[in-house]
Amino acid sequence: MTKINLIGLDADDTLWHNERYYAETQTKFADLLSHYQPEEWVRKQLLQTETRNIEHFGYGIKAFALSMIETAVELTDGRISGQDVRTLIEMARGMINAEVELLEHVGETIPRLAASHTLALITKGDLLDQEKKVLRSGLGKYFTSVEIVSQKNAGIYARMLARLSVAPENFLMVGNSLRSDILPVLELGGKAVYIPHEITWEHEAADLPASGTRVFFHLDDFGKLPELVQELERD
Amino acid sequence: MTKINLIGLDADDTLWHNERYYAETQTKFADLLSHYQPEEWVRKQLLQTETRNIEHFGYGIKAFALSMIETAVELTDGRISGQDVRTLIEMARGMINAEVELLEHVGETIPRLAASHTLALITKGDLLDQEKKVLRSGLGKYFTSVEIVSQKNAGIYARMLARLSVAPENFLMVGNSLRSDILPVLELGGKAVYIPHEITWEHEAADLPASGTRVFFHLDDFGKLPELVQELERD
Q: Which of B69, B71, B127, B150 to mutate to test the interface with A (most CBs of A within 10 A)?
């Protein structure tokens, strides 16, 4: 029998839409620069700037906004207009103030899980943005702890589990990113449920681990999570 | 006798220089825009933009960078050049990668405090920036917990103390901001030591509480902190 003492849930694109807003903004961004450069090239350059800036600016909307502005200056040889720069900042403010839209089955599944298990929300990104989203989602009360971290690697998970006094084998992490939610938890000896999202940021892509073990599970529907947890604890 | 079970320490401009880098960047920013607007006006407008943006972008260097860019576009009626925008982003990257320079007496005082008391570092700002600064400062090992919060108000302190199982009357907070480090802690029934810094961001200014009580202390030297704590516990 496996006892699950803590279920960790990723937030963006696991509980609520997130990449969608980035994708929409990227499309607007490519449109804005379409006088200067072809759309595909704009997208490619933006991803390069974002990846290069992660070590300086980290994750989240503000980092994305700075990367958009920097890419725009580069791709226009400095000819981007002040008005267009203002538009980019407006886009970022729009993203920050966007509604929180829960993914399918999340709204009814989280209270069910919380009735039987301790839940922690574990997310990376800007502190203020993520706190606002937790608040707006209405789900905050179901989580015993909300962990906003600058990155998700085995060391970060290990420290968090130590602080919460949970052994890795009694921890189940649920998320849409193999790189951030699944692989580091399996590395630690924890269990993980991968629920892919229709859009995944390229930076988060990784190879799928071998399935069929009792530590890694692949679900296509968030609503099936309570049954999976039940089965897992019955085994 | 008063028992201090936890000493909270603010980081920026309490343990290490911070406002200095903002002040230097502001001067460069005013220089950059000096063709368009007088320096005083540039500084005033930047502060206004920053204050207006706090609710959207929060605190930290990325928020500051976006506010500089936005102010530059406004004050030049959109005529700011792409090259100048690039310079602003470079300034932000420079701030993020700046050395961590400890304030006077901090380097020897923190180990002394840590030998007798549990220390928590309590700071607001960008998660990644603050984590980097803790790492670079070499002081990380003296803190039992590092709390990076989106804002510092009585509710945030209360939740943190509850989580750490510390009663407010056994908590002593040390910092340079009346608004963030002192007033909310006194409001809760905690104790606070105000160590002013030569430069304080205008947004953090507040009126000085009445001194002479046994809950509020005003020090001009970080090095006097261990003696103050000793006296406090002796009373």
A: B127
**What is the model's pLDDT at position A2?**
84
Q: How many structural domains does chain A have?
A: 2
pLDDT in tens, B59-100: 889 999 999 999 999 999 988 999 999 999 999 999 999 999
Of the residues A80, A96, A112, which one is the last residue of a structural domain?
A96
Q: What is the pLDDT of residue A204?
A: 61
Alpha carbon distance A104, A50 (integer Å): 29
Q: Are residues B156 and B204 in the same domain?
A: yes
Per-residue pLDDT at B228 exceeds 60: yes
The CA distance from B178 to B206, in Å, is 6
Distance CA B55, CA B227 (A): 39
Domain span holding position B29: 19-96
Point out which residues pair with A231 in neighbouring strands: none
Which residues of B are less than 8 Å from A82 in CB distance? 72-73, 76-80
User: Is A82 close to B65, i.e. CB distance below 8 A?
Assistant: no
Same domain, A149 and A198: yes
Which pLDDT tens digit goes with each residue over A175-210? 999 999 999 999 999 999 999 987 666 666 666 666
